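Severity: low
Component: inverse-folding endpoint
Summary: output formatting inconsistent between runs
Steps to reproduce: submit the following structure tokens with default settings.
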């Protein structure tokens, strides 16, 4: 992955209007027909000029010249093309940590797009090399959050409306982190000391359903009610996930707790081990609430999405099965969001 370069000679006002692009971003564009206008900074005249107009086609020589100029750090796109740009910046997520001009909600969009694409890739091909990419992106997110925990609020608002495995994983990742941070930090200001468990817990929330990749897609995506046999197949996903953790050689207890415990319930009515409150890890209790909340508030083939406030209340009322400490944090957060 190439290091982003910033031209030292670029006047400040240009940086507010334009994003500089690097070779990773350029490579994510269609080579001959980039999806947005491209500008070039001409040092000799101290001005930004239009180099490529969207809709036209670049000649082969121009694509080579453009690649060279990107390496020199003189190629830009306009901030007016934000919606097109965020899709592309998501291909090199660490730029989010460097770009001081992006707004919090723009960054939330970028994380959502990037992490959903990564999770999709992982569910299609759940192998180590793809897992490593997921981990890299999730750790970019935790780095971003570690600088300021209140940033989780903008992310937690970015929930996909429709259910699919990748969307659900990202929704659960953001919601799990919200609850975990509220639990750790209370008012977002008290800073826990230990970074490593935070990173690994985040991974666990995103990957809690990793074992679903072993469930045949026709069962996973079925729009009609499941047969008892199919339901039983679905329920093997926690065990499959546990086996995958070993196969991928992931040695994080936080991941194991999320995968193993997110379907266990406080009264012992969950699965796979039917353990009750004292046996369920704290992270598992958080993951269970995040998982159920995200399922309830997304449109599934067999049920319409519930309103987030109603879903939080329903979880609070279900104190036999869910930790009241966690469901109260969720409900309080929803009440604060409505204010
Ligand atoms: Fe699950
Ligand atoms: Fe889940």
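Observed output (run 2 of 3):
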């Amino acid at each position: 992955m190439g290091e982003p370069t910033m031209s030292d000679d670029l006047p400040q006002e240009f940086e507010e209007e334009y994003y500089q692009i690097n070779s990773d971003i350029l490579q994510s564009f269609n080579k001959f027909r980039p999806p947005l206008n491209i500008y070039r900074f001409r040092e000799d005249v101290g001005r930004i000029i239009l180099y490529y107009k969207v809709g036209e086609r670049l000649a082969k020589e121009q694509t080579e010249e453009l690649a060279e100029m990107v390496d020199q750090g003189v190629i830009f796109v306009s901030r007016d093309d934000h919606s097109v740009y965020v899709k592309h910046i998501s291909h090199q997520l660490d730029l989010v940590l460097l770009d001081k001009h992006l707004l919090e909600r723009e960054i939330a969009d970028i994380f959502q797009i990037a992490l959903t694409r990564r999770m999709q890739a992982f569910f299609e091909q759940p192998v180590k090399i793809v897992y490593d990419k997921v981990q890299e992106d999730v750790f970019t997110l935790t780095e971003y959050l570690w600088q300021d925990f209140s940033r989780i609020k903008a992310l937690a608002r970015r929930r996909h409306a429709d259910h699919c495995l990748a969307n659900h994983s990202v929704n659960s990742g953001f919601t799990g982190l919200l609850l975990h941070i509220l639990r750790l930090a209370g008012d977002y200001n008290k800073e826990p000391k230990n970074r490593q468990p935070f990173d690994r817990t985040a991974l666990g929330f995103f990957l809690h359903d990793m074992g679903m990749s072993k469930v045949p897609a026709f069962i996973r995506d079925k729009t009609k009610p499941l047969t008892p046999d199919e339901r039983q197949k679905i329920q093997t996903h926690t065990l499959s996930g546990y086996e995958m953790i070993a196969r991928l050689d992931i040695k994080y207890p936080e991941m194991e707790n999320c995968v193993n415990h997110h379907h266990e319930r406080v009264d012992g009515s969950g699965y796979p081990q039917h353990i009750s409150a004292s046996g369920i890890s704290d992270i598992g209790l958080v993951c269970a609430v995040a998982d159920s909340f995200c399922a309830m508030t997304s449109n599934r083939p067999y049920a319409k999405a519930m309103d987030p406030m109603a879903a939080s209340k329903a979880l609070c009322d279900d104190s036999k099965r869910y930790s009241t400490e966690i469901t109260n944090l969720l409900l309080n957060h929803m009440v604060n969001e409505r204010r």
